[in-house]
Amino acid sequence: MKKLVYTLSVIAALLSSCVKSADEQTIVEKSTTISVEVTPEQSRTYVDNDNIFWSPTGEQVDIIYFNDISTSSSRRQTASHQNYTLTDNRIEFTADITATDGATTYTFGAFYPYVYKYSTSSINLTVPQEQTPTLTSYDPKADIMVSENPVVTQGVPSKISFTFARMVALAKMTLVGIGKGEKIEKVVFSSPAKPAGAVDFKVHEQGTVEKAKWYNNYEDITLNLENRVATGEDTVWFVTIPTDLSGTSFTVTVITDKFNYTKTVDLAGKTLNFERANIAQFRVKELVKAEKPKAYKLLTNIKELTAGDEFVLCNKSSASSVAKLLSATPNGSSYLSYSSSFTINSDNTITELPADGVVFTIENGAIDGTFAFNSANGYLCNNYDAVNYTNVLTFSNTKNEYSSWSVNLGDYNVIKIFNEATSRYVNNYTSSSRFQLSYSASSIYMWYVNGQAAEEPEQPVVTPLATPVVTATAAANTVTVEWAAVEGAKDYTVTCGTATQTVTASPVTFADLEYATEYNVTVVANPANEAVNSASEAGKATVTTEAEQSGSEAQSVKITFPIASTKSGNTVGTIYVGDVIISSTGSWRDNRTNGRDCIFIGRTTSNELRIEAQNGKTITKVTLTAPVDYLVDLKWKEYDGYSSGKYADSWTGECKSRIVFTPNGSSHSDIESIVVEYK
After folding, report:
1. 278 and 329 assigned to the same domain
2. The pTM of the whole model exceeds 0.85
3. Burial 258-269 (b: 16+ CB within 10 A, else e)
4. Burial degree of 313 (CB within 10 A; 0-12, 13-18, 19+)
5. Rounded distance, CA 632 to CA 601, Å?
6. Does the residue 187 lie in any domain?
7. Are 174 and 161 within one domain?
8. Of the candidates 256, 186, 247, 246, which has an alpha carbon nearest to the alpha carbon of residue 220?
9. Centroid of chain to Cα 520
């Protein structure tokens, strides 16, 4: 076991202040620099050979504070800025706090990782059940650290020192006996002692660590190894809540591209304790190898479907307890009925089919460009009766035009199975619990297993396209990228820093970049004919944006859902941090319209949407847009001018603190996009 305890020094220096007038007490805002220093021996975010280091990007801590004239409900929360410097494993953040004129003492606490919390008096953080460790480290997103005790200062401090403690336990598990060269998809560690759960703590009480409450909620922790190549002795890191497994048991399940491995370890009379801030190291040997069950996957690419594949037809596209297959049993009208119910796996595969479900094998049809679906009952056959107008699906021993089908993939992975002989589709009639023929296609899904691959034809010689010659120029914080056209190119992938665009021609612009910042620019030409050409090497250039001009130039941020990495469970939380913080205690509504996610704020609830100014910026306008056929029915309260009103097409004014939008009371609100303008 290795004890991991970390001391972080936080140094605060006054940068600027701004006085606000109101009928309430005067508030003085002070921007404060936070310096977090950690020596190499006390580092913390990822492990390399049992040493833990700060990550060069992505680190952020959460600071909660209040003063002696505040109430318990007026605790303030601020995040350290995302930009920081890292030198010899010493890290320095900046963060903004608000001081109250007349206050004599301030109380500070902090925790890691940063996550927006609506209540700052009691913090609840969860060790995730799904983790993605690296070869040499645990998943840093699973780490939890808190300040051991609150820090009380007289007035606005010039220096704050926290002592941080790691709240979680670390595990270093070595798996012995996995076949060399196999690709490890995931490892599941489970125990009746429930090593996964949450911790609840208060950063403003003495003895934060000792008073913390632990919740052993879950038995399983899933470690996604993303097809890591096995060596035969493979180390897997993971994070747990402090849990003593001594005298109980645990089970390890390893899933590779070829086999499944399992081992249940009986710990009767043995010790295995995941202690807080320690590394528990253990080995698992004699894993039992078993053939992987056949897994049917949802067809999402029609090109993957070939003769020899095995498949089933299903009435559901994702996990559901009422999913059903096409059955060979006719119902009272001689249509093919649904099978008995079954569950689609959480990874969106089917491994256990109902006994009365029909399994088909794809063959080439009797007509060029079509397929025939063979089963133990015969070929799926179109038995349309034009005289009696009956749309009956049956089985036939004959492969002909009536048992030959074209297959196309529609929106949302809906399969369109069409017979040209009678111009009829295979259809899913949910109201009648059956499959039959119809003039139009409906929601029916194909789950398949790849059959024997055909012999690969000799591949033609493919040459890369010419490398684009790139120039990049900057005007203010906008970069323009230009290049000469490349023969044989269909389009171009253009990258500036972390932003990427795919365009068909030069030039392309990247706006709203950081001022006075150097950016690496690349252009890759993509081939029009992949049988002849491959993508080019990247043409490269560097460019530096101009320095920001003084004054109050208008800027804006726009967020349109869905965007990457915003959705986290049912609560929205923080969705943007920069010169403004955008957060909400509302909930997510998926695929509200045209497949979009929306923030949902119900009427007569305490849900809110909060827009907060940062870095001395002033918010001048907020525009909220609802999906088609939905509306925004909110009221607003501006905590700068202490004014409020009902939201119409937008909010306009000048606000240096925050604007909070809450239900107006008559209707639900759905928010698909948010535009915040500021200067």
Report:
1. no
2. no
3. ebbbebebebee
4. buried
5. 9
6. yes
7. no
8. 186
9. 26
Q: Reduce the DSSP state of residue 133 to 3 states and report it.
A: coil
Residue type, 278: N
Q: Say which amino acid occupies 516.
A: A
Q: What does the alpha-carbon distance between residue 491 and residue 470 come to, in Å, rounded to a whole number?
A: 15
Q: How many Å apart are CA 560 and CA 579, to the nearest integer?
A: 18
Q: pLDDT for 91-132, tens place per residue?
A: 777 777 777 888 888 888 888 888 888 778 889 999 999 999
For the sheet with 673-678, list strands across it: 555-560, 673-678, 619-625, 651-655
229: β partners: 183
Among the listed residues 224, 413, 411, 463, the one whose alpha carbon sits nearest the alpha carbon of residue 313: 413
641 and 625 in one domain?
yes
- Tell me if 581 is assigned to some domain: yes
- Strand pairing category for 130-131 and 220-229: parallel
Q: Which tokens is 248 given?
A: 């109980």
Establish whether the linkage from the previous residue to 354 is cis, with ω within 30° of 0.
no
Number of domains in the chain: 5
Between the CA of residue 591 and those of 319, 324, 588, 595, 600, what are the distances in Å? 16, 23, 10, 4, 12
SS3 assignment, position 157: coil
- Same domain for 39 and 163, yes or no, is yes
Single-letter amino acid code for the residue at 259: F
Owning domain of residue 572 = 555-678
Of 419, 410, 411, the residue nearest 369 (C-alpha): 419
**Does some domain include residue 638?**
yes
Contact 139, 238 (CB under 8 A): yes
In this structure, the strands spanning 533-534 and 463-464 are: parallel
Judgement on whether residues 163 and 21 belong to the same structural domain of the protein: yes
Q: Which residue has the tokens 């919740």?
A: 215
Name 350's Cβ contacts closer than 8 Å, sequence gap at least 6: 295, 296, 312, 314, 342, 344, 447
Residue type, 319: A
SS3 56: coil
Asked if 162 and 27 sit in the same domain, the reply is yes
Amino acid (1-letter code) at residue 366: A
Distance CA 212, CA 387 (A): 76
pLDDT value at residue 28: 36
Shared domain for 348 and 271, answered yes or no, is no
Burial of 288 (0-12, 13-18, 19+ CB in 10 A): exposed
51: tokens are 């040493």
Over the stretch 582-596, which tens digit does the pLDDT of each residue have? Answer: 888 888 877 665 566
CATH code of the domain covering residue 476:
2.60.40.10
The strand ranges marked E within 220-351 are 220-229, 233-240, 243-244, 249-256, 259-266, 273-274, 279-284, 288-291, 296-298, 310-314, 326-330, 336-338, 349-350
406 CB-contact burial (10 Å; exposed 0-12 / middle 13-18 / buried 19+): middle
- Which stretch of 80-94, 243-257, 577-591 has the lowest confidence by average pLDDT? 80-94
Cα distance from N-terminal residue to C-terminal residue, the chain: 53
> Does residue 401 lie in a domain region?
yes
Residue 540 sits in the same domain as residue 569: no
Q: Residue 426: which CATH number? A: 2.80.10.50
Residue 566 CB partners (closer than 8 Å, separation 6+) = 572, 575, 597
